[in-house]
Amino acid sequence: MSTGIQAAPPGASGGISAAWRARRNPAGWALAAAGAGWLLGLAWQLQLAALWSLPASIGGTLAAATTLLAAASMPRLRHPALLLVAAAVLAFTSTSWRAETRLAQRLDAALEGQNLLVTGIIASLPQRGTSGTRFVFEVEQASLRGQAVQLPPRLALGWYRQYNDEDELDDPRSELRAGQRWRMPVRLKQPHGALNPHGFDAELMWFEQGLGALGYVRVPRAGQGDAKQLALLDEAAAYPVQRLRQRLRDAMLRELSDARSAGVLAALVVGDQAAIERDDWELFRSTGIAHLVSISGVHVTMFAWLAAVLMGWAWRRSSRLMLWLPAPTAARWLGLALAMAYAMLAGWGVPAQRTVLMLAVAVLLRGAGMRWPWPLVLLAAAVVVTAGDPWALLQPGFWLSFTAVGLLMVSEPVSGAASAEGSGAVRSGVRGHVHGHLRAHLRAQVVATLGLAPLSLVFFQQISVVGFVANLVAIPLVTLLITPLALAGALLPGAWEVAAWLVQAMTWGLELLTRFPLAVWSAAAAPAWMAGCALLGALLAVLPAPWALRWLALPLVLPLLWPPLARPADGQFELLVADVGQGTAVLVRTRGHLLVYDAGPMYSRDSDAGQRVLLPLLRARAEPAIDLLMLSHRDSDHVGGAASLLARHPVRALSSSLEPGHALLAGTRPHRPCRAGQQWLWDGVRFDVLHPTPEDVVTARKPNALSCVLRVEDAQGRSALLTGDIEAPQEAALLRRDRAALASSLLLVPHHGSRTSSSPAFLEAVQPRTAMVQAGYRSRFGHPAPEVMARYEALGIEVMRSDRCGAWLWHSGRPSCTRDALRRYWHWQWQAPEAGANVAIQAGRGAQNP
């Protein structure tokens, strides 16, 4: 069947034929218009804050599909503009339809925090951690107090040794394995994650994976409550590939003595990225090879290439097979099949799916005799990938992988094929073959490093300066030696030990690279127009164009390294209340100084707010150092992230109410205990410490009573009062000492809105226009307490909450919520409960928070 698209002749610049450039391929332009329209329609749909109605989405999908079918059957309708619009409408409406269906499967709010009994299958490789095990659970049936209830088809569950304040949870009595069928008592909540500027969007990840609820297995100890409800019903009910993955991972972790290397090999073979230690992830990110130790497009592509070479070699050994099917064709199809098998063994993650689909498109087109120009091949692959997963368009990996392939294609030398043939005629033997491959590898690394650097700055606000050298060695080492040996270890004794030794050697070399000054360059998050200019500059840098044109890349790219920084004017300050869940973390920025008040909670032994929230925030804001880190008191929801901050970001001074000898005070960093009466001036902004006094330190019976209370006031009289976890007695003491000093425009609500704080007399003295509550979603402590919120409402004080607002920015007295600024339809949205709704359920014991 003729496609009307001519093959690009060898040696054509960029691989684009003269016929294509001369617009002599109407079918090609029609396909390009339809593909571009599809991606534009998706991009439009993914910006929606709320979905259109379901009937409108269904109607639009049917109308667009009918238009495209009519255009396919009638040449007169194949106008590129018509196809572009029809494809855009089809992408927009069909994705909205799918999104509406997925949102409808989310957990009913009335079932949050209930003691549910669910039966289903472990549908993922269980991820073991220091505090327990996490896994995806595929629901078959569920009940509440003996009555059947409807739950989302897929849940993200954890089986913990202890969950929050539930001290009586039982340890997992049997090792969880993929494919097992269980009956489990659980507590669930809707997908709700922290939302911060330039932060990771966990709610998008859960939505993309089809996870309609989060929760934990609640199993009281034997003899208590409903402990007998837990039961393993079937050891191997489903998911044979997942069971194989778990056997391989467990064998590696068991047989290799070096747990660090074993974790890296487990990530390379079965995609268990949680097996890699946190410090190793930091090392891999700093040296720019994090993409190599996760199952990325590089692994799958290299595996497909190796498999195709080996299959082609084996195929040529049989004359009968050669007569049945040419060796190049067989090699392509077998390489694709083996690459798909490897991707499935590695967990069939989104990057692996994208790569397999891209390879499949290329193989199918080649097999059908359609030698399309490379832009059309990439466009077709992008359409296929996003048709399966429309939300992949929002993932950095999507753009990095497609950009890398496109850059390598567009930067091919003009005489690519001819030069290859010529070099083969001039050089012969192993030496010439190796020399050619080394040149190709070096060139590919240069192109990828230059072309992807702007994207790395746009998405991650940093690039690895030593990444070129690291990848130059690590790419062939990981893809050609470590990964094949790790795969062969399942059958070949000793292969895992050799692979582990190579991993140790690689990490030793990477650690040496990180010791170089400026090994990592960080920059602030850039505006969209600057990011677009930088991407254009990167494209110019690798195009096979005259150097006079390539030099234009410099003025386009360089500003991305030093984007403009928004800083308050002299005499003003900006306050950012981070969304850290149940805990406190506040950034106070003047023109030339930064104060961080508390560092948020520790989520587990492997994760804390400093690592997950504050460090990305500081990097995106290009904060060179923290001038003062003030830790109000020792509670873990206030200092849980401090160790990560102190270890990974410059902190010039520390102030706290921590007792001498506390682990966070170790080192040579200056520390001054916070005491009432301390004050200083930064850039025309005044800072006053109001609590505790030396007497409080002697008489306090618990850490809350020692909370550092800080008041910040600008030159215009706008002020903020940061209160830590002070309670009513400390509020009364502040009133006695200096009632007038408490008046403030903004109040960080004491103790997260606990019943022990926010006394009426204290609120009347402060008289804030706005109060901000930092509390976790469905806080296990019941924060903020309804009766406390009633006091604020009675005084006409506007109350903002981080669980409903996300991170909250207060700049020149003007507030803004991150959830409002970045609202998308997959984000959790608070809805005021209707009067009398769900009274029976909420009044029961099951209304406790998960």
Set down the secondary structure blueprint.
Layout: H1 18-21, H2 26-45, H3 54-73, H4 80-104, E1 116-122, E2 127-128, E3 132-144, E4 147-148, E5 154-160, E6 181-189, H5 202-208, E7 213-217, E8 231-234, H6 240-255, H7 259-270, H8 278-286, H9 290-293, H10 297-315, H11 319-324, H12 327-345, H13 350-367, H14 374-388, H15 396-410, H16 416-426, H17 429-460, E9 462-464, H18 467-488, H19 495-514, E10 520-522, H20 528-542, H21 547-550, H22 553-557, E11 574-577, E12 586-589, E13 594-597, E14 602-604, E15 607-608, H23 609-620, E16 628-631, H24 636-639, H25 642-648, E17 654-656, E18 671-673, E19 679-682, E20 685-691, H26 694-699, E21 709-713, E22 719-722, H27 728-738, E23 746-748, H28 760-766, E24 770-773, H29 786-794, E25 798-801, H30 802-805, E26 808-811, E27 814-817, H31 818-821, H32 839-843
Helix pairs in contact: 2-4, 2-14, 3-4, 6-7, 7-18, 7-19, 8-19, 10-12, 10-13, 10-18, 12-13, 13-14, 14-15, 15-17, 17-18, 17-20, 18-19, 23-25
